[in-house]
Amino acid sequence: MIQKKVPMRRCIGCMESKPKKDLIRIIADEGALRLDLSGKANGRGAYLCTDPKCLAKAVKKNSFQRNLELSPDAETVKRFSEELERIAQSRNAE
Ligand SMILES: [Zn+2]
Predict the structure, then answer these.
(1) What is the DSSP string of 60-87?
(2) DSSP annotation of 11
């Protein structure tokens, strides 16, 4: 059986492995967390589904601290949540 190889990454919220292109990369950049929409930025990265629920799970489980040695503050979590929602919507529209 021939299967096309799709790069997989694990979401730090739900811990499920998913195709990399379905996940959003988050990087720790100079002491701040940000979404890496290109997926190519330098720095430590972690992956998250485009589902704000996974973001909430990751925050609750302290996954950001564990993976990126940084925890987002409430303001950042809110902003990420809005951005993830926007990304999810634009992907669904494709
Ligand atoms: Zn997830």
Answers:
(1) HTTHHHHHHS----HHHHHHHHHHHHHH
(2) B
pLDDT digits (tens, 9 = 90+) for 13-67: 999 999 999 999 999 988 899 999 988 888 889 999 999 999 999 999 999 999 9
Enumerate residues with CB within 5 Å of ligand 1 (an ion): 11, 13-14, 49, 54
- The CA distance from 90 to 77, in Å, is 20
- Domain limits of the chain? 8-92
Whether this prediction's pTM lies above 0.85 is answered by yes
Q: How far is the CA of 12 from the centre of ligand 1 (A)?
A: 7
CATH number of 8-92: 3.30.1230.10
Q: Is 59 left (phi over 0), alpha (psi -120 to 50) or beta?
A: alpha
Residue 4 has a pLDDT of: 78
- What is the distance in A from the centroid of ligand 1 to the CA of 21? 13
